[in-house]
Structures are given as C-alpha cells and as structure tokens.
Write a sequence for this structure.
C-alpha cells in the first residue's frame, strides 16, 4: 500500500509541474511500457478542442492477441 501511495504522489508531482509549466499534454508511462515508433503522432492525431484524455491500447505480451504493437494503433 505504501508503494502505491508513493507512486501516486510521484505522478501527482509530475502533473502539477506540467500544469505549472502550462504544458498542454502529459504522457505517463510505466517501466514496462513499449511504444510504437509513431505513438506520439497517432495520439496527437486523436486530440482536439474537446478532448480531455487520450489513452493507448494495452497489450499484454504474455497473451497472444493478434495485434501488432508496432502498427498504427497505439
């Protein structure tokens, strides 16, 4: 439980600093995230004036899904 509290506190600090710097977007990843080479372009293509959050597909490398993690879907 304590580890989750520290993790949450760290994420809050990141978002607070981004807000203070007037960042438009924050990308939060964990230690085992694997991103496609075009991830940022694809995510940004989904944004607009009325978008509050954009998230990716979660692919578990231990489960065969038939999806290509390097493809256009992030």
């Amino acid at each position: 439980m304590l580890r989750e509290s520290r993790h949450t506190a760290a994420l809050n600090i990141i978002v607070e600093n981004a807000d203070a710097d007037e960042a438009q977007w924050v990308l939060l990843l964990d230690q085992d995230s694997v991103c496609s080479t075009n991830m940022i372009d694809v995510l940004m293509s989904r944004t607009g004036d009325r978008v509050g959050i954009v998230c990716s597909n979660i692919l578990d490398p231990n489960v065969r899904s038939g999806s290509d993690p390097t493809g256009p879907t992030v």
Residues 2-20 form the longest helix (19 residues). The helical segments are 2-20, 39-45.
